[in-house]
Amino acid sequence: MAHRIHSSWLTLFSMMAFAFINLCSGAPNPHQREMLKRQEASRQTGGSVTLTPRELQLSAYLHKLKVKEMASVPFPPSMHYFKARPFIQQSAIFKLLRKMPKGAALHVHSSVLASAEWLVRNVTYRPHCYICFAWGGSVRFLFSDGQPYPRWECLYWQLLESLRAGMANPDEFDNSLVRNLTLFTEDPEAAYPSQESVWARFDDAFLAISGLVTYAPVFRDYLYQSLEEFYGDNVMYLEIRSGLSKTYELDGSIHDKVWSLKAYQDVSAKFSAEHPDFLGIRIILSSHRIQSVSMIKAAVMDAIEMQKNFPELIAGFDLVGREDDGRPLWYFREALSLPADLGVNLPYYFHAGETDLEGTDVDANLLDALLFNSSRIGHGYALPHHPLVKELSRKKGVAVEVCPISNQVLKLVSDMRNHPAAVLMTEGHPVVISSDDPTLFGTSGLSYDFYEAFVGIGGLSANLGTLKELAMNSIKYSSLSPVLKKALLDMWQKKWDKFISDQCQ
Ligand SMILES: *[C@@H]1O[C@H](CO)[C@@H](O)[C@H](O)[C@H]1NC(C)=O
Ligand SMILES: *[C@@H]1O[C@H](CO)[C@@H](O)[C@H](O)[C@H]1NC(C)=O
Ligand SMILES: *[C@@H]1O[C@H](CO)[C@@H](O)[C@H](O)[C@H]1NC(C)=O
Ligand SMILES: [Zn+2]
C-alpha cells in the first residue's frame, strides 16, 4: 500500500515536471515518457515480480514469439475457441504453457473435468451401459443389470453393446456421442445464435454426462482420470465445485453424499501417493441457484455439517447455474446469513457477475458476494461495471476467478482482446485463471485458458512475470491453510525452477 501511495505521488510529481518541460521545450521529454511507461507497467499483474537472468531470457523469447503470433492471420484469441483450437495447438507459446507449472485450478466443476473422448471411448464401453435417444436428438446413459424402466424423456433404453454390434460404423457413432457430451461444433456462431441457445445445450450435455459419471464404479475412475488430465497439464491442486450428486449401483441402489465425499478423499489420497508432486483436492459444495430459499437453507445447514465431518476436504459453499436465469444472492440472504447467525464459519466462493446485463438484480451479485464475505469471486465478468465493488474486492484481497474460454463459449465476449479481465490485469487486480468446464469446451487442464489470458487478454505487455504471478496467485488465493499453502508454494517453486532451467538449455 505504502508503495502505491508513493508511486502515485511520483506520478503527480513527474506530471508537473512534464508540464514544466513541455512549456520550455515544446517536445515531451523522452525520459519522463519512459518513466511513465515503466510506472504503468509496474501496476499490471506480475509487474513487480523480479525475474532472474534466466527468467528474463525466457521472457524475451516469449515476447518474440508473441509478436510473431500477433501478426499472424488468423490470430487465435480473436476467434471463437472452437475455431482457434487447432491453431492454438500449433502455437509455440501454447506448447510452453503446457509444460509450465501452473499451480492450482480454483474454478472447475466436478462432472465436467475429464475429456469427452475418454468418457465415450472408455466409460460407454463398459458392460451394462444403456443409452436412450431423448427428445431433441440428445442422449442419456444408464448402467443397469436389467432392462431399465422407461422414464419421462427416455421411453426406450438400448444396450450399447448390442447397438454397436449391429452398426456398420461404430466409430462415427462414437464421434456423435462425443459431440453430445461437449458444446464443440465447427460453426459455433451458427449453432448458438444466442446465450439462451448455448445454455440450453450446456444443460443438456450436463444431463447426458451425469448418467455416466454418477455410476459409482465409474465415479472413482472418472475422478482419477480427471486428476490425471490436470496433472498432465502441470496443475498440482484443484478446488472442485460439486453438488455431490448421488451415485448409483447396477441394481439401482443409491449411495448418499457421504459416500461421494469419501470417494473424493480416497481417490485424491491415492493419486497424491502415486504422484508426490500433486497436493490433492478440496471441494466447494454447490447448490443450484434455481432452488427455493428453504432448499438453500437446508443445503447451507448440510454444508456446515459436512464441513465439520470433513474439515480437510470441504473448502466452502457456492451457488451455481446461469445467473441470469436463477435467483440473485440477495434473494437467499436469509439462508446465506445462517452461518454468521449460528456463529460458524462457512467460507463462500460465489459465482458472481457472470453476466453482461447491467443494473439487473443479478448484476448486484458482485456487491452481495462481497457483503457475504465471499473468499473469491467466480468469473466477475461484470466487475468493470462496478468501480466500488472492484475497489472493495482489491482491498479485501478477494481474487477473481477468470475463465476466458467459458466466457467466450457462453457468449459474453467474442474477441478475447476485449475481455474485461484485460482491465483487471493491467491494474494488477487479484486474479486467477481457470477453465470452468473442460469436458464441455474441449479443453484440458488450464493451458488453453492460460493461452487466451496470456496472448489475448494480456497482450504484448503480459510477460513471464505475469505468468509467474498468475501461478502464484492460484496458491495464494486458494482455500488452503497457511501451512499447506507454504508446502504447495515450495513444491511449485521446485517445478518452476526446473521448468526455467529446462527451457534455457
Ligand atoms: C447425439 O447423438 C445422436 C446419436 O448418434 C445424434 O443423432 C445427435 O446428432 C447427437 N447430438 C449432437 C448435439 O451432436
Ligand atoms: C478404462 O479406464 C480404466 C482406468 O480408469 C482402465 O483400467 C481400462 O483399461 C480402460 N478401458 C478401456 C476400454 O480403455
Ligand atoms: C462478514 O465479515 C464481517 C467482518 O469480519 C462480519 O462482521 C460480518 O458478520 C460477516 N458477514 C457475514 C454475512 O458473514
Ligand atoms: Zn463455474
Automatic annotation (TrEMBL):
- Reaction catalysed? adenosine + H2O + H(+) = inosine + NH4(+)
Q: Give the EC number(s) under which this enzyme is classified.
A: 3.5.4.4
> GO cellular component terms?
extracellular space
Going by the entry's taxonomy, the superkingdom of the source organism is recorded as Eukaryota
**GO BP field:** adenosine catabolic process; inosine biosynthetic process
- Ranges of residues in domain Adenosine/AMP deaminase N-terminal: 32-97
Q: Where in the cell is it found?
A: Secreted
Keyword check for Transmembrane helix: no
What is its cofactor?
Answer: Zn(2+)
A single GO molecular function term of this UniProt record: adenosine deaminase activity
- Domain annotation Adenosine deaminase: ranges: 194-491
- The signal sequence is 1-26
The answer to whether the entry has keyword Nucleotide-binding is no
Q: Which UniProt keywords apply?
A: Hydrolase, Metal-binding, Secreted, Signal
Q: Which family does it belong to?
A: Belongs to the metallo-dependent hydrolases superfamily. Adenosine and AMP deaminases family. ADGF subfamily.
Cross-referenced PANTHER family: ADENOSINE DEAMINASE
Instruction: State what protein this is by name.
Output: adenosine deaminase
**Source species:** Clupea harengus
The gene is ada2b
